[in-house]
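Progress against Task 2.4 (sequence-to-structure conversion) is shown through the following example record, which the project officer requested during the mid-term review.
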Amino acid sequence: MNIRNIFQKIQNKINPPEPIPNETVLGFLRVLETAENEEISCDELFVKLDEYVEREVGQKDAAQLMPVVREHLDICPECCEEYEALLDVLEKTSKN
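Structure tokens generated for the chain above:
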């Protein structure tokens, strides 16, 4: 460890860095998701569908946070059926 690292650790203990707001992190993730590719396959959608539906049930703007997933659901009837079924199940279980 060099002297610069030692001073950095001391400074972080005296003045800890401010935490990054959740909205900033979500925005960054949204940019990464969009930059990853413009389209996703049905298999890729199924990997992300649980997270998307959980956000939607949690009354977060899932379409804004995960626009590539929303776009796929808008054009793929089979995936949209899966989405609606999962959404229905989660909404019913969250009411109990």
